[in-house]
Design goal:
Elements (H helix, E strand, L loop, with lengths): L4 H18 L11 H4 L16 E5 L4 E3 L2 E8 L5 E7 L5 E8 L8 E8 L6 E8 L13 E8 L1
Amino acid sequence: MSTRTRPAGLVIALALCGVLAAGCGEEDAVAEDPETSAQPSEQPSTLPRTAGLITLAAPAEGETVSGSFEASGKANSPEANVPWEIRDTTGETVLEGHATAEGWMDKLYPWTTTVDVSELEPGTYLFIARTDDTSDGEGKPSEEVGARITVE
């Protein structure tokens, strides 16, 4: 063993000792109950606004909408199709549709659509846009972006 590798080995050993001394979590940590953690929360979860192949410019997180609103972003989705949906607080899809981006295959292209929410009850919802999966789950999974909205 050369003397040049000894300092690196010492650094690794010291780092490992620090990890072992720190333990594996907080003393008051508890495991989630599978019965309750699988239940939908009262508030929809927030998705990222940017993923590798899709972005969401509008609506803004927490935006209040009524009647209809414009959703927009950029995407690189098969055949320029950008499916979207609105989920209620239980996670159920209550409205869905699609937008068409200005292109696909070589970069992110702008997409925009008008979403009519006039038939929805007032409340909090989650707007989700995604890349299309034309492979029925055989290929790369869809990427999703989203924002919480309030319908008046």
